[in-house]
Amino acid sequence: MAIQATAQRRFSFLRIAIALQTLTIFLQAVSAGLLLTTSYGETLHGVGARVMYGASMLYVLAAVLAWKPGGGSPRPVWQASGFLVLASIQVVLGIAHIPSVHLPLGVLMFGLSVLAWARR
């Protein structure tokens, strides 16, 4: 019974990490709109990028913690690592000011993050 409760907590942490990542990606879309319309949008989008990247790293940590002790499938770790790679590419594209790839990649990341959250 105690093992099941521990597994449930790890599962919940993973679900929370995915939800946080999804929320931060959505907020990046909102701040991108503000970037185009307000003077403080660029600052907000830059801070949001750091928070989103941190949320992606938290997702990797949560996936490892959910997988390693229980010996389950490493699939969530690979998915979380893939998100971290996408987040890294997204940051580079944003810094390089390549919106023709940056924006569609952000939409893709949001969709994949929602899908990952729905599957957990």
How many strand units? 0
Poorly predicted ranges (pLDDT <50, ≥5 residues)? none
Query: Helical residue percent?
Result: over 70%
Shape: elongated
Separation, N- and C-terminal Cα atoms: 21 Å
SSE ordering? HHHH
Question: How would you describe this structure to a colleague?
Answer:
The protein has 120 residues and is mainly α. The protein has four helices and no strands. It has helices spanning 2-37, 41-67, 75-95, 99-119. Helix 1 runs antiparallel to helix 2 (41-67) and helix 2 packs antiparallel against helix 3. The radius of gyration is 16 Å and the shape is elongated. It starts with a helix and ends with a helix. The mean pLDDT is 90.
Task: Provide a concise account of the structure shown.
The chain is an all-alpha fold and 120 residues long. The chain contains four helices and no strands.
Descriptors:
120 residues; mainly alpha; 0% strand
Annotate the secondary structure layout.
Elements lengths: L1 H36 L3 H27 L7 H21 L3 H21 L1
Helix pairs in contact: 1-2, 1-4, 2-3, 3-4
